[in-house]
Amino acid sequence: MSDKVTTMVLKVVDLHCDSCYKKIKKVLCKFPEIRNQEYDEKANTVKITVVCCNPEKIREKLCCKGGKTIKSIEIIKKPEPKPNKDEKPKPKPKPKPDVLPGRIRILSNKDLL
């Protein structure tokens, strides 16, 4: 399986509280899959970057370890890249003729009308 980079947002009870801040930091440091941690004290959120094959398992483990300190965990999915509008449409293939080269086609009365 290939490892995927996923971004998660943890909504925390209160990052201004020293014990809550320390608990979240301690829990996040226990996971080697977590690469980046960005703390937003005004919004009481922590944005983390996770490198693993299954982010759902990490989410469940964080909920168990964090306890009541973590309100919710949201997994942010990357938007799919849009196709380029500058690409030229492919030319339509030329229709094949009914008659093969070197052969004569006999027309009936229906074909003439």
From TrEMBL:
GO terms for biological process: plant-type hypersensitive response. It comes from Actinidia rufa. PANTHER family: HEAVY METAL TRANSPORT/DETOXIFICATION SUPERFAMILY PROTEIN, HEAVY METAL TRANSPORT_DETOXIFICATION SUPERFAMILY PROTEIN. It comes from the Eukaryota. One of its GO terms (molecular function) is metal ion binding. Residues 75-113 are annotated as: Disordered. The lineage of its organism: Eukaryota, Viridiplantae, Streptophyta, Embryophyta, Tracheophyta. Signal peptide: none annotated. It is found in: Membrane. PROSITE patterns: HMA_2 (PS50846). This is Heavy metal transport/detoxification superfamily protein. One of its GO terms (cellular component) is membrane. Its main location: membrane. Residues 75-90 have a biased composition (Basic and acidic residues). It is a peripheral membrane protein. Residues 6-70 form the HMA domain.
